[in-house]
């Protein structure tokens, strides 16, 4: 993707941040005037959307910095850290809204349904436009951008819930639906926050990727010609798309110079492992310091 293309998306996301902040201010004022907690909840979620987009943009920019002697892998995990920060804010916002809903249930207040509906409808339009911009900026290929995108989508869903709540308040004076909508928004936000946090933490903890079976890779390698055993096998992710493997491979003979290149080629073909470090030896090392697949 060209620098101009990234800059183009950056400008769009910048406008999305600005619009979300203005909308959040309008919703907070409207929530206070109308007495609607769900509208304030939607406003806080919108504000977290703006923060999510800012974090995503900064992380994306940092991730492009070149590697150095002190950071030999570069800054590629900056986007994963950005995704983790965004998912954590989702969880915090969701928990805060649950506490507010409980407090409002204990001390109920009258609500102006019309203010709720009109502001929530405006928020829905802005949320959908922002979600579209964020998706186009790379939500498919970047966990970092996807975290910001989920912020937007969940906020659009929250706006729909607020519109429904406001309508029921206008028609039937069912004030309790405002609290129900708040709880639904909170649960939805926390759910996605936990899912994104789990994905980010697994990468940062160098866990084996979900789509790879480390035992399957071991058996596959040991089935190759000239290979006797595989030990000290580790597979982890540098970022969302780059997998790294290292292993000690015991071979029948080190004289076969083609073994190393052959193993690397088949690992790429079968498991899409493009970055592999293999130590070939004719004697099985007895190192106990490393975890060994048996």
UniProtKB/TrEMBL annotation:
Highest taxon, organism lineage: Bacteria
Protein name as catalogued: Cation transporter
Family the UniProt entry places it in: Belongs to the cation diffusion facilitator (CDF) transporter (TC 2.A.4) family. SLC30A subfamily.
InterPro entries per record: Cation_efflux, Cation_efflux_CTD, Cation_efflux_CTD_sf, Cation_efflux_TM, Cation_efflux_TMD_sf, CDF/SLC30A
Signal peptide: none
Residue ranges of every copy of the Cation efflux protein cytoplasmic domain listed in the record: 209-278
Any one GO CC term of the record: plasma membrane
Transmembrane segments: 12-33, 80-99, 111-137, 149-173, 179-196
Keyword flag Nuclease: no
Pfam families: Cation_efflux (PF01545), ZT_dimer (PF16916)
Subcellular localization: Membrane
Keywords: Ion transport, Membrane, Transmembrane, Transmembrane helix, Transport, Zinc, Zinc transport
Domain Cation efflux protein transmembrane: 16-205
Topology of this chain in the membrane: Multi-pass membrane protein
Keyword Nuclease annotated: no
Any one GO MF annotation of this record: zinc ion transmembrane transporter activity
């Amino acid at each position: 993707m060209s620098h101009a293309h990234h800059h183009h998306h950056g400008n769009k996301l910048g406008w999305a941040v600005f619009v979300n902040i203005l909308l959040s201010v309008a919703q907070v004022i409207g929530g206070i005037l109308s007495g609607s907690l769900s509208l304030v909840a939607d406003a806080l979620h919108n504000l977290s959307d703006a923060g999510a987009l800012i974090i995503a943009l900064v992380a994306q920019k940092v991730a492009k910095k070149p590697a150095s002697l002190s950071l030999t892998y570069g800054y590629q995990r900056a986007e994963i850290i950005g995704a983790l920060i965004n998912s954590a804010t989702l969880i915090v916002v969701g928990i805060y809204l649950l506490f507010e809903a409980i407090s409002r249930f204990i001390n109920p207040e009258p609500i102006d349904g019309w203010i709720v509906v009109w502001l929530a409808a405006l928020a829905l339009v802005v949320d959908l436009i922002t979600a579209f911009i964020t998706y186009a900026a790379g939500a498919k290929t970047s966990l970092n951008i996807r975290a910001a995108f989920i912020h937007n989508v969940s906020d659009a869903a929250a706006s729909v819930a607020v519109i429904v709540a406001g309508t029921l308040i206008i028609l039937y004076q069912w004030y309790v639906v405002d609290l129900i909508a708040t709880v639904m928004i909170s649960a939805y936000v926390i759910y996605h926050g936990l899912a994104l946090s789990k994905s980010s933490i697994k990468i940062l903890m160098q866990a084996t990727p979900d789509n790879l079976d480390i035992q399957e890779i071991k058996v596959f390698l040991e089935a190759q010609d000239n290979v006797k055993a595989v030990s000290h096998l580790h597979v982890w992710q540098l970022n969302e798309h780059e997998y790294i493997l290292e292993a000690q491979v015991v071979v029948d003979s080190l004289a076969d110079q083609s073994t190393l290149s052959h193993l690397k080629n088949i690992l790429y073909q079968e498991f899409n492992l493009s970055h592999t470090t293999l130590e070939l030896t004719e004697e099985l090392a007895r190192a106990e310091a490393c975890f060994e697949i048996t």
